Structures are given as C-alpha cells and as structure tokens.
Amino acid sequence: MTARDQVKQAPAKPQLIKASLPEALREAGLPDALGDSAITGAVISLGHQLGLGVVAEGVETKAQMDFLRDKGCNEVQGYFIGRPMSAADAEAMLRAQAASPT
Length: 102
Prior knowledge:
By secondary structure, this protein is mainly alpha-helical. Helix content is 50%, strand content 10%.
C-alpha cells in the first residue's frame, strides 16, 4: 500500500487536523528557516484540501499566531491564548467574560 493510499484510508475527524508547530517556531518565535514555513503551510493546506479544519498547538507568541493566521490556520491553542486551568477556573472565567460588556 502506498503512502497516498494510507492517507486516503486513514480515519479523520471531519473538522480537525492537529498541526503541531515545528520546534523552530516554538524556540525562535517565528519560522527562521524557509523549510519550517513551507512545512507549516503545507500541513495547513493539506488539511483544507481534505475538507478539514486545522488547529495549531503550542502557540506561545503573537508573532506565531499572526504567522499561522496568515497561512490560513483555522484555530490556535497554547500559552498565548491561555494557560492550563481547572474546569472550575475555566467556568469562572467564561462567566466573567459573559457578564462583562464588550
């Protein structure tokens, strides 16, 4: 079986591919090598071509988030968005946000 056949037969959630950032993105704040940018863009493009949304994990800076948004990444998660917290803390934060005027 070819790699292409394996990808075509692989089960996938209808809305999600997790695209972990290359190590250089995390360490340098931005892809400092053309290869990192190309790989990240290719993963995002592949997800979209398969009809899936793409979530990037490990986003720690605004520069990383902007880079991923420019590449068309659908969602991001990581310390830049928020630190891990308990369910009770998350509920309290969401309630506070819902109660405050925008």
